[in-house]
Amino acid sequence: MTNEEKAQKEWEAVRQWSVEEADRVTEQLKKEGKYIPGLDSNTEYYAYIPQECKKRLKEIKEKYGLVKK
């Protein structure tokens, strides 16, 4: 398996985590009575998810030597 394939596999796991994490946040907000449906509602509760994905992607790229110079 090439470094690109390994990185892709790890990135897919990160994407899956982000979907599951967003679902978890939604369920928690619903339990707390804070969930408001809509595209821009509750954005502060989800803001860390794309930030964490970006951080993890950078780590994956560095791990497999895929960082552009």
Radius of gyration (Å): 15 Å
Q: Structural class of the secondary structure composition?
A: mainly alpha
Shape, please?
Answer: elongated
Regions with little confidence, pLDDT below 50 for 5+ residues: none
Count of helical stretches: 3
Q: How far is it from the N-terminal to the C-terminal residue, by CA?
A: 24 Å
- The total strand number stands at 0
List the helices and strands and how they pair.
Layout: H1 3-32, H2 43-46, H3 48-63
Short description:
With 69 residues, this protein is mostly helical. It has helices at residues 3-32, 43-46, 48-63.
Explain how this protein is built.
- The protein has 69 residues and is mostly helical.
- The chain is built from three helices and no strands.
- It has helices spanning 3-32, 43-46, 48-63.
- The longest helix has 30 residues, at 3-32.
- The chain is elongated.
- The mean pLDDT is 94.
Keywords:
69 residues, elongated, mainly alpha
